[in-house]
Amino acid sequence: MAMLNRAGVGIYHQVSGHKTDKTPVLLTHGMYATSAMWEPNLPALGAGRQIITWDIRGHGQSDYPDDQGLYTEALSVGDMEAILDSQGIQRTVIGGLSLGGYLSMAFNLAFPERVVALMLFDTGPGFRRDEPRQQWNDTVDALSKRIEETGLEAVSGGAEVDASKHRGLSGVVKAQRGIMKQFDGRIIESLPAISVPTLVVVGANDQPFLAAADYMAERIPNAEKVVIEDAEHASNIDQPEAFNRAVLKFLDGI
Fold first, then answer.
1. What is the pLDDT of residues 42-70, one digit of tens each?
2. How many Cβ atoms sit within 10 Å of the Cβ of residue 192?
3. Which of 10, 91, 120, 237 could form a disulfide with 101 if both were Cys (CB 3.0 to 4.6 A apart)?
4. Angular region, 64: left φ>0, alpha ψ -120 to 50, beta rest
């Protein structure tokens, strides 16, 4: 495990698995979760390659800066780049769940030359139209207020959410307000231009993301979709063996 200093903000990350000639994987957790959510998957996925996991700023063991302006999508993507640079990794497989999947698509848009493949788990590509995007942002604001008032119990999240993994709520709330909000449609509009192999995974019972999974699989060239039966939003935790099989099959040869 290590802490990377990003202009005074510590970003926690950990390298698991074994360094081989296979492409390393960078995994990003979902909102309210931490890198600990990948624990059911690391032994299997790291058997033949390096797996890098990390805590988004405001989560887990990363720092919780007071300045709301230090929580943005662009800074989060920059954190991902800096982690790879710190490990001497030029090209990688980028994957993530929910917010982590969205950030993975944002990373691919910003640094396509560094991405060998994408893995998008129980996530969505954002919104093309202003009205649904504003509705999303209003929901983010309302939920942030509820979390401030009642804690993470306000979040009807999946098995990946564990309040005990955070040092407090201040960072989580600021991350939600600053990183989860969306301001344009560039991610959803980038889907047809994604040129790397892409795995789309969704839990069969993850109702809010079933349509998004279909949408991404239809519009990303060379995308493969896998539905994990008897799984909800945290498909990697709900059904780790099935999840690991799907990921390992996709990664075979990469």
1. 999 999 999 999 999 999 999 999 999 99
2. 10
3. 120
4. beta
Beta bridge partners of 99: none
- CA-nearest of 29, 14, 10, 37 to 162 is 37
Q: Which CATH code of 2.60.120.260, 3.30.70.2740, 3.40.50.1820, 3.30.420.40 fits the domain covering 2-251?
A: 3.40.50.1820
Element (H, E) at 6: strand 2-6
Say if residue 106 is exposed, middle or buried (CB neighbours under 10 Å; 0-12, 13-18, 19+). buried
**Amino acid 124: pLDDT:** 96
Burial class (CB in 10 A: 0-12, 13-18, 19+), 67: exposed
State the Cα–Cα distance between residues 77 and 88, nearest whole angstrom. Answer: 17
> Which residues touch 18 (CB under 8 Å, ≥6 apart)?
46, 47, 48, 49, 50
Contact 163, 151 (CB under 8 A): yes
Q: Strand order of the sheet with strand 198-203? A: 2-6, 9-17, 50-54, 25-28, 92-97, 115-121, 198-203, 223-228
Write out the two tokens for 78.
């920059």
How far is Cα 161 from Cα 60, in angstroms, rounded to an integer? 11
Q: Which phi and psi angles does 251 have, rounded to 5°?
A: -75, -10
Give how far the C-alpha of residue 2 lies from the chain's centroid of Cα atoms, to the nearest Å: 19
